[in-house]
Amino acid sequence: MKFLEGKTVLLGVCGGIAAYKAAELCRLLVQEGATVQVIMTAGAREFISPLTFSVLTGQPALTEIFKPGGEDPLTHIDLADRADLFLVAPATANILAKLAAGLADDLLTTTALAVTCPTLVAPAMNVNMYAKAAVQENLATLERRGWGIVEPEEGFLACGTTGKGRLAGLERIVAACRRALAPGDYRDVAVLVTAGGTREPLDPVRYIGNYSSGKMGYALARAAWERGARVTLVTASPLPPPPEVEVIRVQTAAEMLAAVEGRFEGSDIVLKAAAVADFRPVAQAANKIKKDAKQGLNLELEPTVDILAYLGRRKKRQILVGFAAETQDLLANARQKLQNKHLDLMVANDVTRPGAGFGSDTNIVTLLYPDGSKEELPRLSKPEVAHRILDAVKNLPGFPKKGTRPEREE
Ligand code: PMT
Based on the domain organization, do 390 and 255 belong to the same domain? Predict the structure, then answer.
């Protein structure tokens, strides 16, 4: 599944050192199925050749408002009419000022005024420039007028300083493009996702854990965000979480329970992709347990609270989606959990299959419904599985319909 299939993205590239990253961004957008038309400012051409973009996109990178020779004064209007998304990345302080002021003195700025599609900017500049009131006010103006802002990141900048100003990670920019173009069918829906494998400490250096990487849960969190949801991710995974969502880091099943319990009331949908320990050591040793080569070690374990079953007993309007990681009798075991935990949907994965379950970038799942019906999905990337799950959840009874969703504070 290519998320930007059939979409035309106008990519404005400005003159900053991050312009070289726009080449990789082009490649990612094309990989997602988009037709990418690059428009370069004069400054951008000092940093990177139009030829690079022409080769990557299969379209000549446009640089001039008037073509030399047979000039066509309608170019920017044609471009604007064809665009599904207008993205400026990297956006310099200069372009932000021009966009905020409504200036139209080159192909990029004239096109910006002519587009009616969603618009995004991804600024990149020196930390002090970015912090300047003029830049911040221009960004605020653009945001107020409906522009999406993909905020820069903190880090080492090309100018030798460290701070906020580095172009956002390309994955984040692509995610923002997907969100701008997504149907918005989850807009104002509050989605709570759990991810990763909990760790139950034995002593200060060891724990009982499992192989969950968190990829499935993270894919769900990002997919829900792309579709307009307000997402809270409770994660036990050490992977960096998607930056767009609210993140609560936990380690143990007890911490996950506390985090989920506190968020449950305000959630519309709960997606429980985390692999939660079923047992934990009764006691945690204060110091590292010493090895006695002659004797084994007997661990005394006690059950943890089954978070999902607990939520199932408490739920009112919430839609509860569980995951079943099985190694045998997939459907029978998963159905049992669906019923016992009072779920609205169960995602069953046979974690013994290659390309399914723990750690992999793909998953093979069967969606089980309370009425006994099921939908088998082929092997798909975890982001694709995530979107298919959201498609299914959207059609469940009780899914908050547009117009009935509570307005929430930004
Ligand atoms: O993280 P990845 O590497 O991407 O791998 C994805 C995954 C294999 C972890 C994921 O697809 C998956 O199957 N997650 C559920 C794993 C699991 O714990 O399955 P289970 O059958 O033991 O539990 C059933 C459900 O009850 C799960 O939704 C689980 O979150 C929940 N549960 C279990 C125990 C417990 N104490 N509390 C719970 O809430």
Answer: yes
